[in-house]
Amino acid sequence: MREKPMSIELEPLTENNLGALLEAAVADADPAEVMPPVSGDPGWTAQRQQAFLEFHRGRALRAEEPVELTYVITVDGRAVGAARLEYQGDSFEAGVWIGRSHRGRGVGRVVAGRLRSAAVTAGVRRVVAVTTGDNTAARRLLPAGTPMGDDGTVRAAVDLE
Ligand SMILES: CC(C)(COP(=O)(O)OP(=O)(O)OC[C@H]1O[C@@H](n2cnc3c(N)ncnc32)[C@H](O)[C@@H]1OP(=O)(O)O)[C@@H](O)C(=O)NCCC(=O)NCCS
């Protein structure tokens, strides 16, 4: 029997869905996949959960000059990850994380396309993405043949129509 098609949406991050995003991260992702390092005990400590909220409040949710646009990725109405477009002059740097239990089902590819559309809507025609050479799934979302640099990272710039 065919699987029912998923409904995948990008919802702008707000204070109202930030809690659901944190829940998805705690339940289904490692801190290192979704936020910068925080010292202290490993795992989703109360301190690290608070740092996750502050991280987003200091970036997409800050009142003046947000540093990026962030979206909550929903699958069938449930938060499963986040996607971002960080302002970099006349381009955006894109980033995505998806909860473990939703990876490898095509969500990332749909999200990559939606991010490109969101960039065009925001009036930006170039999206840059950077990942590590060993991140096969993330590399597959970059243009085929994008080479790995000497530092082990893979960087692609895509010009949008
Ligand atoms: C990277 C990430 C966003 C990709 O999202 P995803 O929903 O898992 O990706 P998709 O299922 O859409 O797959 C994208 C491509 O990678 C391939 N792929 C997915 N998982 C793979 C795996 N484990 N090994 C090899 N290829 C894989 C898919 O076949 C697909 O390629 P294709 O369309 O050419 O067949 C997701 O895996 C993730 O959140 N990882 C942890 C955080 C992270 O690494 N973020 C990126 C940091 S730069």
Describe the structure.
There is one protein chain. The chain has 161 residues and is α+β, with helices and mostly antiparallel strands. The chain has one domain: Aminopeptidase. The chain has a 6-stranded mixed beta sheet with strand order 1-2-3-4-5-6, with helices on both faces. Strand 2 and strand 3 form a beta hairpin. Helix 1 crosses helix 3. The radius of gyration is 16 Å and the shape is globular. The protein starts with 7 loop residues before the first strand and ends with a strand. The model has no long low-confidence stretch (mean pLDDT 96). Coenzyme A binds next to strand 4, helix 4 and helix 5.
Key terms:
161 residues, alpha+beta, Aminopeptidase, 6-stranded mixed sheet, 5 helices, globular, binds coenzyme A
Estimated share of beta-strand residues: 25-35%
Under CATH, the topology is which? Answer: Aminopeptidase
Q: What is the overall number of helices? A: 5
Do you know the CATH architecture?
3-Layer(aba) Sandwich
Distance between the ends: 38 Å
Query: Could you say how many structural domains there are in total?
Result: 1
Q: Sketch the topology as an H/E string, one letter per element.
A: EHHHEEEHEHE
Q: How many individual β-strands?
A: 6
> What multimeric state do the chains show?
single chain
